[in-house]
Write a structure and sequence with these properties.
Elements lengths: L11 H6 L1 H19 L8 E14 L4 E5 L2 H15 L5 E5 L5 E6 L9 H6 L4 H13 L6 E4 L13 E2 L28 H13 L5 E4 L17 H6 L4 E4 L2 H5 L4 E6 L3 H11 L2 H8 L5 E2 L2 E2 L6 H7 L5 H4 L16 E2 L21 H9 L4 H10 L21 H7 L3 E2 L1 E4 L10 E4 L8 H21 L7 H11 L4 H4 L2 E4 L9 H9 L13 H4 E4 L1 H6 L8 H10 L5 H19 L5 H10 L12 H15 L6 H4 L3 H8 L4
The structure holds adenosine-5'-diphosphate (ADP) and magnesium ion (2 copies).
């Protein structure tokens, strides 16, 4: 979750006073990085994933599954180990928003610094790296505790959801939540995360409001409307929605992210753009969070929950009141899909109004930054900093970047364009952020490898996936819906070969059984962008679109890759292909089926403690390799073997 800074966070009142100061210096810092590093070249691909986990306790005697607030204890041990082991460390562990969450990344990024072929063979290391991470933490857990990749914990915010047991204190707590106690927020660094939550609330002038449509079952109350004995909640909760009121409901969800280093700034900008249309598609495919605060929702993904949970816009910025003390109407939360493409090719697809700070924009353009990139940064910089440390105020703008990072890392968007950190040899990177996390290492590795491989194909064949950015936004809304893989359709580009594509690209498309002429980029936007299902996008649509998996398989025949890696990657692609066509279920669909099929489910959309316990116990046995869940991963012996390795 961005950079960690030591010290004591300032109050909101003080932070607000310094907002303009932070932005000003942030822009100077960005200009300095740009000037110094705009020509940095990195020959080889480097990349790494981030997996977030929840620490769960199974209370067998009471048949309850709870979240164990132990992250701090575990991270203390992990961080000591990291310091001792230095470069030899197998993994890195970082705090996340909640006291029951940890984030694990590989000890160092995949991809070799000096060898092209090793890049591909690293596809065969991801899953083991993830497995090692899990085992490292599991060794520190009690017998009835587990480390699980759950995107949303079904009973988060229900009474008694944590150990130790905490009771929310709406009157005296920082977030004022009726459901999510401050103690469930990660402690560490003098309550850094609590300050974040508190300041979002203070900036907005009221508590955050999260409403997610309820899944209507035959016995669900009609209308579904809870009563909270709290004025703010009564006003905020919408009929037929699950109401939540704290940052923890969103930032307390887990996800799966991938960061790639591009060979230079141009390539990073291309990847940032080209992967943008993939965000909703991969979100729908990885959907894993159908339940919130003990109720089944009509959404399968976490995205809008988080987006609402950190929405710090004031009524003026939201357009509910005329602009007086605020500067802009802002059409999205800080946590949302991106608003503009940043590569040259992307510019013509920027069709939504971009709110940006004109003064910073001009300053950056005057400093030699092109208009597209300057607008992107000036857009991020419409936000206020939400936490700040007195110790970090005074910065050397030529050599430090904390003020830039402050704003950058609290713009939580589907994609992130990351400049090189100061004093490092790291290059220009791009982060892919929309995916939900899957139960097993096999599945998480499949999603990560799929995306990394796709970047190789995009760059090698110079493909073009761009569609108007307003259509990506439409897709984001569709992608979160219940069973969005099977029930929704998405705008997607069908003609993806460009005039700069090498002949191999056309050959590759033809080898998938799709005529390459119809896949040459059409300058008519309306014709190039059509509605397709996830299945058609991933597996192909007759002679209209070759499909991403067939393209990747074809690409793999043209590169040097060792047999073992090849075999593993094929299994990953099988998983993605089968999820897309419905042969396998998404994690969200599987969770729904489990809950609604539970003998104690009363068809009232409620997920009781007992249902939750049985669900989490089953997930735990899947993760431990005691059960292979055919509906999620199929039943090939290869897959089974890989999942079973988890226990070793
Ligand atoms: P965040 O900005 O999300 O906090 P981190 O800096 O923690 O991201 O790293 C995210 C991922 O980037 C990790 O998987 C890490 O291995 C990977 N990574 C680190 N250095 C590089 C690099 N030079 N190029 C590509 N990925 C890198
Ligand atoms: Mg994280
Ligand atoms: Mg990240």
């Amino acid at each position: 979750m961005g950079l960690l800074t030591q010290g004591k966070p300032l109050s909101w009142e003080e932070t607000k006073k310094y907002a303009e100061y932070v932005r000003k210096h942030g822009i100077l810092q960005f200009i300095a990085i740009y000037r110094k590093l705009k020509d940095r070249q990195d020959q080889y691909l480097r990349w790494g994933d981030e997996v977030e986990y929840m620490i769960v306790k199974l209370d067998h005697s009471n048949q309850k599954a709870k979240l164990a607030l132990k992250a701090e204890e575990i991270l203390k041990i992990m961080n000591e180990r990291e310091e001792r082991e230095g470069d030899k460390r197998a993994s890195l562990w970082r705090p996340e928003f909640a006291a029951y969450m940890v984030e694990g990344t590989p000890g160092s990024p995949f991809g070799a610094a000096n060898d092209h072929t090793a890049v591909l063979s690293h596809f065969n290391c991801v899953e083991d790296s993830m497995r090692t991470r899990r085992l490292e933490v599991e060794q520190l857990l009690a017998k009835d505790e587990s480390l699980l990749c759950l995107t949303s914990f079904p009973r988060l915010g229900c009474p008694d959801f944590s150990v130790p047991r905490l009771v929310p204190d709406p009157e005296n707590s920082g977030t004022g939540s009726l459901f999510f106690p401050d103690g469930a927020i990660f402690g560490g660094h003098p309550r850094f995360k609590l300050t974040l939550a508190q300041n979002i609330r203070k900036r907005r002038g009221r508590k955050v409001i999260i409403n997610i449509p309820i899944y209507r079952d035959v016995n669900t109350k009609d209308p579904f409307l809870e009563h909270f004995n709290d004025e703010e909640a009564e006003d905020s909760a919408r009929a037929d929605h699950i109401y939540m009121d704290a940052m923890g409901f969103g930032m307390g969800c887990c996800c799966l992210q991938v960061t790639f280093q591009a060979s230079n700034i141009q390539e990073a900008r291309i990847l940032y753009d080209q992967l943008t249309p993939l965000c909703p598609i991969l979100m729908a495919l990885s959907a894993a969070s159908p339940i919130h605060r003990g109720y089944i929702s009509d959404r399968d993904c976490r995205w809008s929950v988080i987006s609402q949970s950190v929405d710090d816009r004031t009524k003026e910025e939201l357009g509910e009141e005329p602009l007086k003390s605020c500067k802009y109407r802002i059409n999205k939360s800080r946590y949302d899909s991106i608003d503009s493409y940043i590569s040259e090719e992307g510019a013509k697809y920027n069709d939504i109004q971009l709110v940006y700070n004109e003064e910073y924009y001009k300053q950056m353009v005057d400093a030699g930054i092109d208009t597209l990139l300057a607008k992107h940064v000036a857009h991020l910089f419409i936000r206020d900093p939400i936490t700040l440390y007195r110790e970090k105020l005074d910065q050397d703008d030529e050599h430090e970047t904390d003020h830039f990072e402050n704003i950058q890392s609290t713009n939580w968007q589907t994609m992130r364009f990351k400049p090189p950190p100061p004093q490092s040899s790291i290059g220009w990177r791009v982060e892919f952020r929309p995916m939900e996390v899957q139960f097993t290492e096999f599945e998480n590795a499949a999603f990560v490898v799929f995306i990394v491989l796709l970047t190789r194909v995009i760059l090698t064949y110079r493909l073009n996936f761009l569609i108007p950015i307003s259509k990506v936004d439409e897709n984001m809304q569709e992608a979160q819906k219940r069973d969005a893989v099977s029930r929704c359709r998405y705008w997607f580009r069908k003609d993806i070969i460009t005039h700069t594509s090498p002949p191999e690209a056309a050959a590759c498309v033809e080898a998938t059984g799709c005529p390459s002429e119809s896949n040459i980029c059409n300058s008519n936007l309306d014709e190039s962008c059509i509605l397709m299902s996830v299945n058609e996008i991933i597996n192909g649509k007759g002679n209209h679109f070759p499909g991403l998996v067939p393209l990747l398989r074809q690409y793999l025949t043209s590169v040097e890759i060792d047999a073992a890696t090849h075999c593993t990657v094929q299994q990953y692609l099988n998983l993605i292909a089968n999820r897309a066509c419905g042969n396998l279920m998404t994690t969200a669909a599987w969770i729904r089926k489990y809950v609604t099929g539970h003998e104690q489910y009363k068809k009232d959309s409620k997920v009781t403690d007992k249902i939750n316990y049985d669900l989490i116990k089953t997930v735990n046995s899947i993760v431990k390799g005691e059960t292979v869940c055919k509906e999620l991963v199929g039943d090939s012996p290869f897959t089974k073997a890989r999942i079973l390795r988890q226990q070793k």
